[in-house]
Design brief:
alpha+beta, 3 domains, two-stranded antiparallel ribbon, 12 helices, globular
């Protein structure tokens, strides 16, 4: 929400900056990031939506060394808090990302970090994360949000949480009233999009995907869950959903996957098509 963006953005500044610098360390070496940020803010002060390449090209004459890609990434993704303006996330078409400063879009600057050393953002992130993904370890929280230094947030609200131990002896935290289904609760077949947080939301991804298939989660593959675990990948070709199992499926699981695939084909197609093809196991 807008309130989240204003409250949380400053808490993420250092992490966002470090991530971009880690990728473009050589290109950005010797660049005064304070001066670059000031120039970026001045450029964007008119509130005109600009793409990342637009921003980079406008400043490349003053900072030619980094190149437009590194310049655009560090400015738009890290140095100047931005929002992507509508239209974005369009159905069955593409809309390029155009950016304006967060302060211009929402009418004020993001909240500064508290000067007293408290971390209300970390505590809010922890509660929000556990509401969706608990029980989970603190390492899972860190992998999901990218923030270090959250042990203080865990300590601050530990008394309101419940804890468990997993099979490896790790401590798992959860909200006291969160649902924790019985282990025998059926898990229907589900088709997930690329980079879905059901997989990326944990440091220990073994709870949902086998080690030999972990690379799928960062390669942009769309996956199918069978009994709550990644068991296949899927893609669309024309109006047909093609499913490639990662291992041999039982007859009942294959039927359930095909039925869910038909529903997906109907959802995605402009036509009255329910085409689905379940292939042989990969490899």
């Amino acid at each position: 929400t807008a309130a989240d963006a204003l409250a949380w953005r400053s808490r993420h500044d250092a992490m966002l900056r470090q991530r971009v610098i880690a990728v473009y360390r050589g290109e950005l070496d010797g660049t005064d990031l304070g001066e670059l940020a000031a120039a970026g803010r001045a450029l964007m002060a008119d509130g005109e939506p600009r793409t990342m390449p637009d921003v980079a090209r406008a400043l490349a004459g003053r900072w030619p060394k980094p190149g437009t890609r590194a310049l655009g990434e560090i400015l738009v993704a890290a140095l100047v808090p931005m929002v992507q303006v509508p239209p974005r996330g369009l159905w069955r078409t593409k809309g390029g990302a155009r950016n304006v400063p967060l302060a211009h879009w929402l009418g004020r600057e993001a909240d500064p970090l508290p000067s007293d050393g408290s971390d209300p953002v970390g505590q809010a992130l922890l509660r929000r994360y556990l509401a969706a993904y608990g029980p989970a370890a603190s390492a899972d929280l860190r992998a999901w949000c990218g923030l270090a230094g959250l042990p203080a947030a865990v300590s601050a609200i530990r008394e309101e949480l419940v804890s468990f131990r997993d099979e490896r002896g790790r401590e798992l935290l959860d909200l006291p009233d969160a649902p924790r289904p019985d282990p025998d609760t059926p898990a229907p077949v589900r088709f997930l999009p690329a980079f879905d947080n059901a997989i990326l939301g944990y440091h220990d991804r073994g709870r949902i995907i086998d080690d030999q298939h972990r690379g799928l989660s960062v390669a942009g593959e769309r996956v199918v869950l069978v009994n709550g675990r990644v068991a296949a990948t899927w893609r669309t070709e024309s109006s047909t959903v093609t499913i490639t199992p990662l291992t041999r499926l039982s007859a009942s699981d294959r039927t359930a996957v095909a039925e869910e695939g038909r529903q997906m084909a109907l959802f995605l197609s402009d036509k009255e098509s329910d085409g689905v093809r379940v292939g042989a196991p990969a490899g």
